[in-house]
Amino acid sequence: MPYPKNLLNDFETVALDLHPHWWYYTKALLAVAASVIFAIVAVTVSDGTVQTGLMWVAFAAIVVSLGWLIKRYATWSTTNFVVTSDRVIYRSGVMRKSGIEIPLERVNNVSSNQGVFERMLGAGDLLIESGGESGQQRFTDIKNPSRVQNLIHAQREANNSRMFGGRGDGGSDVATQLEKLEGMLERGTLTQEEFDAQKRRLLGD
């Protein structure tokens, strides 16, 4: 499912909304396949008593692996890696949601990492270094991480230009940026001192 629009700030737009790469639930798929193969092998056993025992084991393995696959798929479908005009957001959880939010103006560096096999699949990891308390955040199973890396850099530059470029597009633009700053202050992503400094910059004081 897509990232809920009601969780976006005023004037915030979504540039990218990704679920994890399908590799995320490959282990569960392999477990189901292995369980089915084990069940097929169990059928060929000639000893009736041994065959019955093996079939029960195979049945239990199939049930457990299917349950794992369903759980992984549910988590996959409710996990979003989102890049907006203001933030990088990671949100996950079926019933209980947890997430990470990094304002673009706090992003210092974005790097991607792909092994040979991951490059063949189009998957990889992203490491985002920010000026927040966490410092670094690693995100795994990202589709086309190099493209996502470039997109984050582009969105960061656009965001910094709007907020700190020293020029606005009129009073309404300044008012919009002030509203964004106030929202960040309320969420705790800006300190009062940072808010005051950026407000003075926008107002030209």
Chart the SSEs and their pairings.
Blueprint: E1 14-18, H1 26-43, H2 48-77, E2 80-84, E3 87-92, E4 98-103, E5 107-113, H3 116-121, E6 123-130, E7 136-143, H4 145-164, H5 171-187, H6 192-203
Antiparallel strand pairs: 1-2, 2-3, 3-4, 5-6, 6-7
Helix pairs in contact: 1-2, 5-6
Explain what this protein looks like in three dimensions:
The chain has 205 residues and is of the alpha+beta class. Helix content is 50%, strand content 22%. It is built from 6 helices and 7 strands. A 4-stranded antiparallel beta sheet has the order 1-2-3-4. A 3-stranded antiparallel beta sheet has the order 5-6-7. Helix 5 packs antiparallel against helix 6. The chain is elongated and about 85 Å long.
Quick summary:
The chain is an alpha+beta fold and 205 residues long. The protein is 50% helix and 22% strand. It has a four-stranded antiparallel beta sheet. A three-stranded antiparallel beta sheet has the order 5-6-7.
Question: What proportion strand?
Answer: 15-25%
Give the N-terminus to C-terminus distance in angstroms.
44 Å
Question: How many strands, what sense, and barrel or not for the largest sheet?
Answer: 4 strands, antiparallel
Mean pLDDT: 83
Secondary-structure element series: EHHEEEEHEEHHH
Helix content: 40-55%
| Poorly predicted sequence stretches spanning 5 or more consecutive residues | 166-172
Q: If you compute it from the alpha carbons, what radius of gyration comes out, rounded to the nearest whole angstrom?
A: 24 Å
Q: Based on Cα principal axes, name the global outline.
A: elongated
Q: Look at the helices and sheets and give the structural class.
A: alpha+beta
